[in-house]
Amino acid sequence: MLRRLHSLPGLVSALLVALVGLTGAVLSVDPALERLGTSLPAGLSVAELAGRVARHYPGAEQIQRTPSGAIIVYYSSGEVSGAARVDPASGAGLAPYAPSAFSRWVKELHRSLFLDTAGSAATGLTALTMLLLSASGIALLLKRVGGWRRLARPLHGSRSQRWHAAVARLAAAGLLLSALTGSYMSAATFALVPDGTRDEPDFPATTSGGAPLPAARLPALLATELADLRELVFPLPGDRSAVYTLRTARGDAYVDQSSGALLAYRAHSGAREVYELVYQLHTGEGMWWLGLLLGLSALGAPWLAATGATVWWQRRRAKPRIAGNAPLRAADTVILVGSENNSTWGFARALHDALTTAGRRVHTAPMNQFSSRHGAARHLFLLTATYGDGDAPASASQFLARLAAAAPNPAASFAVLGFGDRQFPQFCQFALDVDAALAARGWRRLCAPATIDRQSTQEFARWGTAVGALLGHPLVLEHAPAHPATTALQLRERVDYGREQQEPTVVLRFVAAPAPAPGWLDGLLARRRLPRFEAGDLAGIIAPGSPMPRFYSLASGSNDGVLEICVRKQPAGLCSSYLHGLRPGDRVEAFIQPNPRFRPTSGKAPVILIGAGTGIGPLAGFIRNNSGKHPMYLYWGGRDPDSDFLYEPELRDYLADRRLTQLHTAFSRIKDGVHVQNRLSEDADNMRRLIEDDGQVLVCGSRAMADSVRQALDQILAPLNLTVQALRDDGRYREDVF
Ligand SMILES: Cc1cc2nc3c(=O)[nH]c(=O)nc-3n(C[C@H](O)[C@H](O)[C@H](O)COP(=O)(O)O)c2cc1C
Which atom of ligand 1 is nearest to 161's Cα? Predict the structure, then answer.
């Protein structure tokens, strides 16, 4: 609901929002430019200023003080009339004054799109829409990151989602303020709210009629500080009944030109004060720094419109139509889907198709539609993602409430499959909550809840095999989530390890593949470069014979000029066998999946890198890029130093040039062999010292190794009253496990 409230108005108004934002950003510079070189002498009265100006401009008709403090005089003497910016200290002209034509053009576009009333109405509606977008966007952002306290944490999702959220995080407050004030000003333009600008004091019925005094001696002007002045209109020369019109920040008055007395005064109404504050907060006039901040936020509007439309399109594309969805009343199997960004729907469709092929009548629906009619099916599968801090995704937000209202069906059995990301502290928590809630309500489990990390197609296939065995028929689940376009890479070199241990491991270094055949067009294409990536990101490799990518952590950044991965040959592993068979010059198809959570944060705090086996890949990449020589400690476990000491020569070089501070190795297949977690425990004092120095921990390797490391670290940290979980919550413990 909230998402729809955000995306639909956003899509409809994207172009206008972008235009109003861009023009607003351009206008925001004006107050700061005007402020440049403007200084007001303290304690000067309006009378003194008027006297000085009149000396230099005997035909002065009007003096204006702009919100930025500039003093402008409008004058006319004989045939000559004009406007000039004056120095308040002397009253002398500084330069002719002519508001910039460009600025007026942009202002007109911003206010009314050059379409008079219809245009003003359109920009007014755009401001209202921006208000709705900012408020719903802030709510979505908070939901997405899991609350205010997590707002500064690294963001997740696709590249467009992260860019959208990152800019929204910076610009939302400014956009909200601009939208709120813009809506108010539009409402005032159409007299929907009072602005009090038409409240004038009553024109005096009589004046003293005496000979005019010089402006510098008029008591009412002497009593008014220049800082309060908005405008002083001089009486017509020679007309003794004419008066001065004085407009100040607090009210408007008429002043007798002979006695200098206040003939009439009207203080600004509350409505006028509110309108003026709103105007200031919208334009930044008189508050140039606010203007610039608002302008920067407004620059975010076109960006948010473009990335928002991309996110909407990606989400729409990811949501598959379920072909052959059996009607609910005829279904013997129901699949319920909890999804935010729609990727879980792809897995649901694969399950739907496989069950349908097995002869079942399958109905698939969002979890939010759950009712006892769904529960009447024989088998219930619930596939759900987790969001925020272990919360429900959009299409499952009402599920638990609906479940509480439905009676359990003793004849049905259910299976929950969670989709999540292990880097979140609350991994697949919502799926586990769903499983627990169903069991607590008396529903019967078909199997224990299972979890899928980062949309792993292999884990999904394995779950299918296990569930098929329970159902009594094979369930082949093949689903390759949509991935970005691939790039052709060419193997430049390979370094082999571990043959002696029957654990072949290879470091592969790729470059961008040249175009296949020469020709002028190919020549152009041949300049293709590697895509941008950083060590710790993932390379998705497509092996011939399978559309499903296999992911490998990157051991290099694109600045290194090569794409480097470290691959262990898995028994019967399709992709690892393929990669191990590559010779220099061979080509592969790959794409990059950013993994921004798994990299050291910048700063001088120590970085503790822990890994085993091929987990060294990204860790070696981090060390290679440590040109600032910040303290980095590597704890790494292998089997045999003689055959599989991966990256040994590089690590020795890094130690020598101090990119690596300390190296602690643990080898398990030698006499008195140990694992990496044992090394950590032996070095407990050092670990505690590093953690106390704000150190952060990055762990890469197998799940079993990561579990053992976590247990060892919990023991090591206990004397500090710290846990791995606490470090993780603080963003100081990050894992990349496989
Ligand atoms: C902003 C954000 C928050 C997330 N929070 C969690 C979380 O708390 N726990 C978890 O296991 N996964 C979390 N994930 C990962 C998603 O659950 C996972 O990517 C899932 O496959 C997305 O499925 P969907 O595209 O159907 O929404 C989060 C992802 C994003 C983008």
Answer: 31
What are the helix (H) ranges across 28-154?
A: 29-35, 46-56, 101-112, 116-145
Closest C-alpha to 257, from 287, 220, 230: 220
Ligand 1 neighbour 339 (Cβ under 6 A): yes
Cα 681 to ligand 1 centroid, rounded to whole Å: 33
Shortest-distance Cα residue to atom 18 of ligand 1: 420
Q: Cα of 415 to ligand 1 centre, how many Å?
A: 20
Predicted-assembly ipTM surpassing the 0.85 threshold: yes
Interatomic CA distance for residues 362 and 57, integer angstroms: 89
Q: What are the strands of the beta sheet with 71-77, ordered from one edge?
A: 93-96, 80-86, 71-77, 60-65, 229-233, 243-248, 251-256, 262-267
From the alpha carbon of 144, which atom of ligand 1 is closest?
Answer: 1
Cα 418 to averaged position of ligand 1 atoms, centre (Å): 10
Per-10-residue mean pLDDT of the chain, 738 residues long, equals 88 93 94 78 90 93 90 89 92 89 93 93 95 94 84 79 92 95 95 87 89 93 93 92 94 94 93 93 90 94 94 79 88 95 91 95 94 90 91 90 91 96 86 97 96 90 95 90 85 86 86 71 59 92 84 92 93 89 93 85 90 94 93 93 90 95 91 90 94 94 92 94 89 87
Phi/psi-derived region of residue 52, left when phi > 0, alpha when psi is between -120 and 50, beta in every other case: alpha
